[in-house]
Design brief:
Elements (H helix, E strand, L loop, with lengths): L1 H9 L3 H25 L9 H30 L4 H27 L2 H8 L2 H24 L9 H10 L2 H20 L12 H49 L3 E5 L5 E4 L3 H4 L4 H4 L13 H13 L4 E6 L11 E9 L5 E10 L1 H15 L9 H14 L7 E7 L2 H8 L1 H15 L8 E6 L2 E6 L4 H13 L5 E3 L3 E3 L3 E7 L6 H16 L6 E3 L2
Parallel strand pairs: 11-12
Antiparallel strand pairs: 1-2, 1-5, 3-4, 4-5, 6-8, 6-11, 7-8, 9-10
Helix pairs in contact: 1-2, 2-3, 3-4, 4-9, 6-7, 6-8, 7-8, 7-9, 8-9, 15-16
Length: 524
């Protein structure tokens, strides 16, 4: 409506009012769509990137496109040529948009209220004084100076942008536009010396304003961004120090070479060393030599992949808090280019966790009923022993099965059967050395691993174990049960797999069962 009214009263007349209004709306719409696409959740003013996107949207796209239909309308209704009309439209709208739109958007977004709320009394007084001095300088340049001093406001503009920020820069542009615009329309000031008509002088003043805007606002936007970043950094540092200084975990800042640059106060409680004494020392000196390669590798991975978290467990070389195991969590710190310039690490005591882990592993490695090795634990030992045979070691595997165990369960119950299984292992275990192990593979089936024992010695050992079962086993109710076992024996082959060895021993056991039981058979 304002566009149509202005065009009717002061422009090309009522005929051009509607077309020019549509073109003006299209210009604003193009800028809005571009800013919305590239500046999601970003203000138009106050950040360098936002300001650059706005400038490119209005100068490189919107006014280039909309100047074409505007020039066509103007060339049809006025004697001005298409090319001259295009230039007049583009310069007038680009300069006017650069000067007015960001300031209006900034005011509509509440930037002035936010500035007034956040700034201290001293900062407000400083801003008023600087703007008052700037007003006096502009007044003198446009109304009192005998020479063209259009360059003189540039230094105060930059000073205000530095000291007051983007609100001060915007206020300076408004002051310059009001005083300079009135003077130019009144045929006063430096632009009155230009030999041109009033339209060209106004356009020259717009060009001057746009240059002042592009000088001060980007500087103010960049400074505003840096202030925000500095504020975020201060808040982050405050949180970091609160965590580091009151946490039971040891917090270390380690540079790219592995040297400690900061250690939290908890270091004296955990590692028995004052934080100031750790600074300048290699972090690897805190680690047991056996675990240093893993810690150094984790440090390098953290530096190579900033943003990711890396965890490594190690044993400390010294501790007054009875720490046996520690966990170090690392994340790289980056500079303004995103390059890693060190690592922030936290060290916590993992001794209790490791103790629980070992306890769980021990539980998992034992058969809950008989105390023999669990199937999984025994198979892992068998796998390791097969690997040893590749170095010339001769070892054997004995697979045994209690004869007629089903009859024990049927006649005496499963409770008595469990007692028999437990007593069976207790009878055999004293006949085995510390290196030899017995495992329960399932039900009444057991296996005995005989390291450094060839087939002949293993056969003799089997008979000794059989002799240990010659006496009956006492069970509940004052009863005694006689048991025997069948066995299959195989010497480990370093070219065979664990499954092949178990299968060979199982076939030998099968033959022992079908040979009358209570006997030993060797694998083929």
């Amino acid at each position: 409506m304002a566009s149509a009214l202005s065009t009717s009263l002061f422009g090309m007349g009522p005929v051009a009012a509607i077309p020019m209004a549509v073109i003006n709306i299209a210009e604003a719409l193009i800028v809005a769509l571009i800013c919305r696409h590239y500046l999601t959740n970003r203000p138009v003013i106050g950040a360098t990137r936002s300001l650059l996107v706005f400038i490119m949207a209005i100068c490189a796209v919107a006014d280039v496109v909309t100047a074409v239909p505007a020039a066509m309308v103007a060339s049809l209704l006025t004697p001005v040529s298409f090319g001259a009309s295009w230039v007049q439209w583009y310069t007038g709208h680009a300069l006017g948009g650069l000067i007015c739109a960001p300031i209006l958007v900034m005011l509509m977004q509440g930037e002035f209220r936010r500035w007034r709320r956040e700034k201290s009394r001293a900062e407000k007084i400083e801003a008023i004084i600087l703007l008052a001095l700037f007003t006096a300088i502009i007044g003198y340049i446009f109304y009192g100076a005998q020479h063209p001093l259009l360059f003189a406001p540039l230094l105060p503009l930059v000073l205000i942008a530095f000291r007051v920020g983007h609100m001060g820069a915007a206020a300076s542009i408004i002051i310059l536009a009001l005083i300079g615009g009135i003077a130019t329309f009144s045929d006063m000031g430096p632009l009155s010396l230009v030999f041109a008509d009033m339209g060209e002088r106004v356009q020259a003043f717009q060009f001057y304003l746009a240059n002042c805007f592009l000088l001060s606002m980007p500087v103010a936007a960049e400074l505003n961004g840096r202030r925000r970043l500095f504020q975020l950094l201060r808040e982050s540092e405050a949180r970091y120090r609160a965590i580091a200084e009151h946490s039971g975990d040891v917090v270390l800042n380690i540079n790219v070479t592995g040297v400690i640059e900061y250690a939290s106060p908890s270091a004296i409680e955990q590692v028995g060393c004052a934080p100031e004494l750790l600074v300048g020392q290699a972090a690897a000196n805190l680690v047991d030599p056996q675990d240093r390669p893993q810690v150094i590798a984790a440090h390098r991975r953290a530096l190579m992949r900033p943003g990711s978290i890396h965890t490594v467990e190690f044993r400390p070389i010294i501790s007054i808090a009875a720490m046996e195991w520690c966990e170090m969590v690392m994340r790289a710190a980056v500079d303004e280019r995103g390059q890693a310039n060190g690592v922030i690490s936290t060290i916590r005591d993992m001794s209790r966790h490791k103790a629980r882990q070992r306890a769980l592993q021990q539980v998992a490695a034992r058969d809950s009923l008989t105390g023999a090795d669990s199937r999984r634990a025994f198979l892992e030992k068998l796998e390791a022993e097969i690997l040893r045979t590749r170095h010339g070691v001769r070892s054997s595997l004995l697979l045994i099965d209690i004869d007629h165990f089903k009859a024990v369960n049927d006649h005496h119950g499963h409770g008595v059967g469990d007692e028999v299984l437990t007593a069976f292992v207790e009878r055999l275990r004293p006949g085995l050395s510390l290196q030899e192990s017995i495992g329960r593979l399932g039900g009444e089936e057991f296996a005995i691993l005989l390291p450094d024992c060839d087939i002949d010695r293993a056969s003799l050992l089997c008979e000794n174990l059989r002799a240990r079962l010659s006496d009956p086993i006492p069970v509940s109710g004052g009863k005694y049960i006689n048991i025997t076992f069948s066995a299959g024996l195989v010497e480990l082959d370093n070219t065979s797999t664990r499954s092949a060895m178990l299968e060979a021993a199982d076939k030998a056991l099968y033959r022992a069962k079908h040979s009358g039981r209570n006997c030993l058979r060797l694998a083929a």
